[in-house]
């Protein structure tokens, strides 16, 4: 009756869990699968281990979600855990792009743009990247409710049981 949790790396780490996720689905076992993913800016651009993981698990899981911003991590995980355990239990897949997992200073250094952009095109790219990082981390340090969401388990009535 308790939820199982697995955290795996992107690409082959995620694809290697397909059989286990299918078994959890067939056994009606609540499972939270956390899968890494390429950075949001690199999705669909040939990044290392970038595959459409959500489509892979769509038919196997009760829900498949990709976290887009740091502030969405906690609410997404709360909802995923409740979904996995509610009604008919089963697996839920949550994709976590690497840029939502790294600290602000690391992401800012890696993709925040250069400090001395030249020309209007360079300045436009710099502005875009700096806004991207600001939006990625906007609201990340605000307090979040971390209490579990209620699990909804439907119970059969006396008429349905046929007493």
From TrEMBL:
One of its GO terms (cellular component) is acetolactate synthase complex. The lineage of its organism: Eukaryota, Metazoa, Chordata, Craniata, Vertebrata. Belongs to the TPP enzyme family. Residues 1-56 form the Thiamine pyrophosphate enzyme N-terminal TPP-binding domain. GO terms for molecular function: acetolactate synthase activity; flavin adenine dinucleotide binding; thiamine pyrophosphate binding. SUPFAM superfamilies: Thiamin diphosphate-binding fold (THDP-binding) (SSF52518). Gene3D superfamilies: 3.40.50.970. It comes from the Eukaryota. This is ILVBL protein. Pfam families: TPP_enzyme_N. GO terms for biological process: isoleucine biosynthetic process; L-valine biosynthetic process. Its cofactor is thiamine diphosphate. InterPro entries: THDP-binding, Thiamin_PyroP_enz_TPP-bd_dom, TPP_enz.
